[in-house]
């Protein structure tokens, strides 16, 4: 028994000795030269090995090199495409014993990989031009045959070359886009590539760090040799970043780079995504973005454009569907989209909840001056220059808290920092809004709007936007407005244009114009007081934030009224006069007393004009005295109901004269 053990150990020792001898006698320089030739033929780029090549026994039987570099595309000025501290090449021992070189594993130590896109769209990972030159013996840049004497032009010992495993350890990957100026850098790159069969699939696994965020990726190419030959092949890919993930299943082509297939992206971890992109995540309200998923049929074109067909974007309980196309055009990217939705719940964005809101537009400050007023915080319009876009959107309904809209149908066009929105339908407050709105950010900010608002509930609209709920009626409004400025205060101060309004039958609560007028008493205000009207109409002009009106007309059962004055839209003040007139059928019919409304919007002063009130009282007393005098005169004259005082006086004078004549003649 011991004899067989000794024989076995001696056999193993012999094999180990043969392996060591084979490694020590292995033509390492020849392996390196053959590898450089193979890379030259495959890429058209020269591979330079510095520091010599030496055999190794651990951790793999093979060879190790010093520093290596792979040349970049001839148009690049950024240095080599690949530089590394060295290579470790694992050799198949059994093949080596037969005199063949079969590569099983290649490890690239601490590489720096540079990927570039030129301003004209060329990419440095496109090796087609270089390989064509290498294959043409007459080409001046064709790679020389580095094989040793007697090896000829055939495949030689590389005929059985295989790669079970390729590995990158502790590398850096840099992507430069010279068209946009973007730079993306991955550090701590560890990757493995398995290609055991040239005619089979290739599997890639990668981990890296991008701006402090760990990224994991795994991918499988269905046919690596076909892809290397310039034919498309199937690609399945899965990637993870924090709690975010991405999956793709489709076709990939490298010459030129393009892909098409099914995409699924869970973007719920916005913090990790924005951190990886080197950007600050948006200040979303609490509870928003817990679920953010995008899926659809995706395509990436050789020009760098991205298309999503039959796309679905799910944000928490909301869903948008449609088609999108994004192209990295010059000077700005271009987005086209046609989107639709059912009911969108945007209550979390309304600013009524506890979450953060960007409504103030000025970080933690509203930018309001002391004492109230419009915000003076600068309005950032830089986002208008981020891209150009053409977007069509429709939704069955939008719930934004206080404001409920729907259906909604609009088209928006953003071009060179100018956004134009055409409202085809916007049902709100029981009415409909149509027209157009333009925001121009080319030189500061300017706004323009041409809107037709029909049949909206004035009480609900004014209550939501101004906290004023006393006007109960339906309203029609036409607006043609322009403004410019970099804050809300500046916009309101420059506001100009005009319009017209009309109110249907309704009531004004808290103010009894008829009671004020009939009793000449300004106290007819407060709970329970109201003015019922049949219609209200007016036109107005706006100049530098001041609205002027001179034709307000109110028609009511007991009175009519006209009005004129100014409304300081910028200063938020009122200086307006309403002149109601009691109708003849009312008590005190014909009485007309001006009603003055002055002061700030927040606390206006409503009062009857004192001088006009005094004149009205004097007129009323004078008319009462005149009526009393006329009644007494009529009584003394014995005037009939159909007889005027003048006729009664003449008649009475005639009667008295007749009596005097009869007495004179003794009758």
TrEMBL record:
GO terms for cellular component: plasma membrane. It holds the Pfam family AsmA. Residues 130-162, 625-652 are annotated as: Disordered. Residues 625-635 have a biased composition (Basic and acidic residues). InterPro entries: AsmA (IPR007844), AsmA-related (IPR052894). Residues 9-147, 318-551 form the AsmA domain. Residues 133-148 have a biased composition (Low complexity). One of its GO terms (biological process) is regulation of protein targeting to membrane. It comes from the Bacteria. This is AsmA protein. It comes from Rhodovulum kholense.
